[in-house]
Amino acid sequence: MSEVARLSETPAGIRVVTETVPDMRSVALGFWVRTGSRDESESEAGVSHFLEHLLFKGTPELSAVEISELLDGIGAQFNAFTSKEATHLYARFLDRHLERAFEVLGEMFLTPTLAEIDSERQVVIEEIAMYGDDPDSIAHDLIAEAVFGDTPLGRPIIGTAEVIGSISKERIREYHDSRYRGPAIVISAAGNVDHDKLVALAEGLSPGTGEPTGAPGVEPADRGTARAFEKETEQYHLVIGTPGIDRADDRRFCLAILDSVLGGSASSRLFTRIREERGLAYSVGTYSEQYSDTGLFAIHAGTRGENLGEVCEIVAEEMGLITTVAPGVEEVERAKELVKGRLVLAEESNAARMSRIGRAVLHDLPILSLDEMLDRIDAVGQEDVLSLAEEILGRVPPSSACVGPDTGLMDEATAVLEGVTAA
Questions:
Q1: Residue 222, exposed/middle/buried by CB under 10 A (0-12, 13-18, 19+)?
Q2: Which residue among 166, 222, 261, 405 sits deepest, i.e. has the most Cβ atoms within 10 Å of its Cβ?
Q3: Nearest 5°: CA angle at 381, between 376 and 383?
Q4: Are residues 245 and 166 in the same domain?
């Protein structure tokens, strides 16, 4: 645990973690629960996200309008999100409003009335339709399906219009009451916050009790698969993905270096070759996602049809190179400084601090200090990057997902990826 982070647990099993930054005049406060779309059955697909929407629609004490007026009235910035393994409600506000903000967020999180369910049902269905119109979103959902198959990790977080349009209020209530339990909840805060005061506030909450329900394990596909989705677009939206590492893997710091070297920066190999040298794409890069038992590493690009084959060839070349030859000293050092710079700059935001410590506790990871994280990054060597690249990018041919007007062209262009494996 870091020198400034403090962790406590209430009798109800809620964990409270804080990082106090006395020089700040604000607090970032987050309520987390360890449940997300991977916890859903197929008949519940999207209920975690729908429930997140309904948290804002009223409590026994407050209407939806009153919630907004109260949070606006204390100058708060507030929102929520759902991921595949967590749901998060948060707000930032002036430090003197901690008690009121905590009271409102606590009611929303634990005692939602699920009011206005039918109108919000339509809002979420419109959101699903919006993503269905976005080829980039479709491509990213398809790569998850290609890598993780017919499992909760392979399904979109937002769910389906069929489920959202028919799921009952009673079933959503049952889902909330069975998931939002003490041992599954974390409250995190960063900024000018008193840890003991926050713990005392948390002790006044009455969540459910018992152990959270575990999500089923997921075994990624043992071979690459291709998904081509026909849609009239100006560009072809391409995502290439492979199974990655889980969030507890100590090599996550090495993964950040690998990401930066291959496509996660303006000086990365893919950005340089595809955009800067050849002008084949405006958007090109890499990203990674980590889950409790697996992960995803992905390369993405948007390009016109006449350039799609060349983009795939460059990606295949660079994947082959990075899995067989260790990156140079200068390249690795540049990536390290970039990763460290992003990390340090993020620490200047109390919202980023709150999120970092909240995620760590929620997923039972150690809370590392900034210096400890910088040391882990500095410890990464050239051979470490090569070894991880071999494992992630060279164990099986990658999967691909592409959205555009001509499926034949997509199939032809991505066929070159079938030969990408480590020597």
A1: exposed
A2: 261
A3: 135
A4: no
3-state secondary structure at position 90 = strand
List 19, 44, 52, 127, catalytic entry:
52
Helix (H) or strand (E) holding 68: helix 64-73
State which residues form the domain around 189.
5-203
CATH of the domain at 283: 3.30.830.10
Q: Do residue 158 and residue 297 come from a single domain?
A: no
Q: Is 383 a catalytic residue?
A: no
Compute, in degrees rounded to 10, the torsion defined by CA atoms 309, 311, 313, 317: 180
How many CB atoms within 10 Å of residue 161? 17
Q: Which of 190, 181, 178, 157 is nearest to 360 (CA)?
A: 190
Same domain? For 49 and 107 the reply is yes
